[in-house]
Amino acid sequence: MSPHRNAVSTSLSPVTPDRAKIARAAKALDAGELVAFPTETVYGLGGDAASNDAVAAIFKAKGRPRFNPLIVHVANTKAAEALVVFDERAGKLANAFWPGALTIVLPRRADCQVSLLASAGTDSLALRVPAHGVALDLLTAFARPVAAPSANPSGAVSPTTASHVAESLGDFVSLIIDGGPCTIGLESTVISLTGETPLLLRPGGVTAEEVEAVIGHFPHMDRGADTTPESPGRLLQHYAPRRPLRLDAVGVNSGEALLSFGPHTITGAATELNLSPDSNLTEAAANLFAMLRELDSPAHTAIAVMTVPEIGLGLAINDRLHRAANPAVNPEEPSS
Ligand code: TXA
Ligand code: MG
Fold this sequence. Notes:
By secondary structure, the chain is of the alpha/beta class.
């Protein structure tokens, strides 16, 4: 468990973005400092991707194991092509989904300037062009790649508002840019194109079906205890509230909070939040992390979670819920 898990910082107030703040953020990145910024998926903890010191500072702030590589953000496909070897599939995916919630893992170019620490010792690099005006303004102002994992301590729930970031990582960043709540609220889909067959490393904001519509069908990894370092982000207990999570609940026990989905007849919850009263998976994804945080209070013995359908964005939602519900497979090595 991360040593930062219990840290509460109120020292840094998020700022509303304007030209001057974006310029200040770009300057901070240039000086090797860390900046938290909004994306359409979750808030990112950004640092100069070419700087070993800045990338190391990201790992330190998150309490993240060194072997877990970081996503590098760029302003457009051309900037990505300067860092990694694009093939036809990558071109098609970038064309279809960038800017957007798809991260593509590709072989690093020999002249790639991104810190090897961001690749965690592998010869691949994960890249994404985020679909968020503030993120794109920052990337354009900085004009170089920005390494940015989700802005949460390692193993904790990803932040979907600026105040989530201020509560946990405020002490580690020079600036938190407040772009409001993230519209998708779930991390990006991560797909590796380093081998002949595409590999879905993490389900996320873009569904596997949407990716397959562009590059054809490919095998998916099963959900569960995957400890291969190919995708460290798939280690169990990735998104962990402190209260135990009970999945597929059809009722509540005394003292339990209820995270519901759609219309239902369950009564007696200490507190209830509904991911989407209309059973809308997009709305549920956007609410997931903020609601988990809210229900993760000492007032509750556990969080009972109703079943979410395993279709479309439901796959990514269930992936995060199963991780949050699972006991640590390797407590020494929490994931991102
Ligand atoms: O939505 C997102 O992707 C957010 C926002 C800020 O962009 N970022 C994010 O980053 O979730 P992070 O670092 O928390 O998650 C990165 C995931 C991890 O599961 C990591 O293991 C995987 O991507 N990853 C990164 N680089 C990789 C690489 N070279 N090979 C395989 N997996 C990689
Ligand atoms: Mg993360």
